[in-house]
Please model this.
Amino acid sequence: MLRPTRARIDLGRLRRNAALARRLAPASRVLAVIKADAYGHGAVPVAQALEPLCEGMAVATLEEASALREAGIRAPLLLLEGVFGAGELPIAAELDLMLVVHQQEQLGWLREARLSRPLHCWLKVDTGMHRLGFAPAQLPAAWQTLSACASVAGPIVLCSHLGNAEAAASERTGEQIRRMDAAAASLPESVPQSLANSAALLNHPRTHRDWVRPGYLLFGDSPLPPGAAHPALAELAPVMRFESTVIAVREIERGEAVGYGERWIAQRPSRIATVAAGYADGYPCNPGPGACALIGGRPAPLAGRVSMDMLMLDVTALPPVQPGDPVLLWGDGLAVGEVARRAGTIGYELLAGMPARVPRLIEDSP
Ligand SMILES: *Cc1c(COP(=O)(O)O)cnc(C)c1O
Model:
C-alpha cells in the first residue's frame, strides 16, 4: 500500500495545450519551455509527449539538457541562459545543444573554443526587462563577433524577454517591442526573432515573430491575472492533478484548536478531516485566508496550519467524509494559480517546487 499523495500527469491534456499554443501563433515555430523538470511535471515524459508537436524545447541547465538527451530526445534543445563557463561548451557541443548568448564573457568563451561541432546560438538583447541580454548599443558588435566565430553555426536567432506580458496593455511592453524592432534593424541582415512567453502568446500577437516560447501555458493554467478574459483560456486544461486522501476524521467541540500554534479555533462543533499531504509535498506552508481543497468536488476550507506531511480540512458543512476519500489539492476545478494567489505566490512556484517525494503518475488521455 503506497502513500496516496501523488501528482497525476495527463499527457493528452499537455498535447492539447501544445496544440492550442500552435493555433495561437500559427505562423511561428514553437519552442516548448520545459525547464525545472517541466515545471514540476517530469521533464522526460513531458518532452517525449511534446517532441512531435514542437520544433524545439528549452531548459535552464546542462544537466536538464543532458537528462533529455539520455532519454533519447533528439529535438533541438536551447539552454536559456547559455553556458555558465567555458568548460560547458564541449559538453554542449557533444549534446548538440543551442545556446543563448547574453553577455560578453560568453562571446569570449565561444571565440576561444575548439568544438566537435559548431553550435546554434540565440543572441539575446535586453529590451527593457534588465535581466539578461546585450544592451541594444552593443548588439551589432556582439552579432559580428558571434557570426565570425568558427564554433557558431548560423542562422543566429535574435531573442529577448518581456517583463510584463501578462498585462493586456502596458506601455513598457510596447516599448520593449519597439526596442526589439530597432535591435533587429541594427543588424546587417534580417534574422529570425523570438520574444513571446506564454502571456505574450495570448496578449500580444505582435511578439509572436519566428519562434514563440510558451512554458506555463502548456501545463494548462492561465498565465494571465485573475479575471483576464481571453477566449483561449477556456481551452486550457490542467495537466497536473495533485491529490491525496483523507487519512483520519474526527469530531471536535466548539472552542477546540486544530493544528500547530492554535491558529484555528472551532466556532461550532466541527468535523475535521486530516489529509496525507503537507508542505514537504509542495503544498504551501502558508496557504492564506480562504484556502480550500476539494472533496467530491466540494470545497473544504483548511483548518489550522499546514504540517510537514499533513493538513487538516474543516468538513463540517460537507456530506459525510471518511478515511480513504480522495482529496484534490489542485487540478480540475481548483487551479494551481488560484491556490498560489491565496498563498501570496504564483502557480509557477508551486509547480516548480513539487518535491521528488511526490510520485508523478504519468497518464495518457485520448
Ligand atoms: C521560462 C521562460 C519562458 C517561458 O515562460 P512562461 O511564462 O512559462 O511561458 C520563455 N522564455 C524565457 C527566456 C524563459 O526563461
Q: What stands out?
A: The two ends are 29 Å apart (CA to CA). Residues 33, 35, 80, 161, 197-199, 213-217, 223 surround pyridoxal-5'-phosphate (CB under 6 Å). The chain is about 25% helix and 25% strand. The longest helix spans residues 171-185.
